[in-house]
Amino acid sequence: MEGNRDMNLSSILERAPSPILRAASVRVSRRVSAAPERIFDAWLQAAEARTFLFAGRSRIGETVHSEIDARVGGRFAIVRRWDAEEVEYSGEYLEIDRPQRVVFSLFVEKYAQRDDRVIVELAPLANQSLLVLTHELSLPDPAERSRIGCEWAIALDRLEERVVNPASWPAPRPSFSPRQLPVEFQTYGNTPD
Q1: Which of 59, 132, 192, 193 is 20 to 30 Å from 27 by CA-CA measure?
Q2: DSSP assignment, residue 184?
Q3: Fold of the domain built from segment(s) 23-167
Q4: pLDDT digit string, tens, across residues 40-67
């Protein structure tokens, strides 16, 4: 602690991206007809996040596994199955400032995405919220940036549907995998330390 100033992990973390990542990023924004708190919470609750995060282009794919430890330093993993292939999306929460900002690392082995960083920022806007998502990429390829931008746009469309009209979404279905417990035994949301 310096003087009387409180220090926390998010004040220590570097907010500026590395020069490599700064040159390769994707930014997608949306006006969403929901309060920032409602949108923010959907990002950090596994039962909701599994309905829109990394859902894919034309098909959602079955969510095989999802877990979120929603705290700075906590990890997340969402595994989706398309046909016979499973893809795992995982990362660590670097900053959580409810309801304005969440920052997490992102690792996707299948696409060789390593050391990516995703920043989600929310601001109230009349009876809506402005959501700005910035994905700082480890892949400088323009085709990959385009693919990732399209996939985030689809994810944000699904997020908006989820938070604006939650009754239209079916309840998550139980699914089993050799490396997964039945849904009723999984931990969703925050876990005690």
Answers
A1: 59
A2: G
A3: Alpha-D-Glucose-1,6-Bisphosphate; Chain A, domain 4 (3.30.530)
A4: 999 999 989 988 888 765 455 677 888 9
Q: Is 112 left (phi over 0), alpha (psi -120 to 50) or beta?
A: left
Question: pLDDT digit string (tens) for 178-188?
Answer: 333 333 333 33
The domain limits of the chain are: 23-167
Helix (H), strand (E) at residue 10: helix 9-12
- Please check whether residue 150 is in contact with residue 39, taking contact to mean a CB–CB distance below 8 angstroms: no
Burial of 15 (0-12, 13-18, 19+ CB in 10 A): exposed
- Among left, alpha and beta (phi > 0; psi -120 to 50; other), residue 77 is beta
Amino acid at 97: D
Partnered with residue 62 across adjacent β-strands are: 81
Q: Where are the beta strands (DSSP E) in the chain?
A: 25-32, 62-68, 75-82, 85-97, 101-108, 113-125, 128-136
CB atoms within 10 A of CB 173: 8
Q: What would the pLDDT profile of 63-120 be if each residue is shown by its tens digit?
A: 788 899 999 999 999 998 877 888 888 999 999 999 999 999 999 877 766 778 999 9
What is the crossing angle of helices 36-44 and 142-164, to 10°?
120
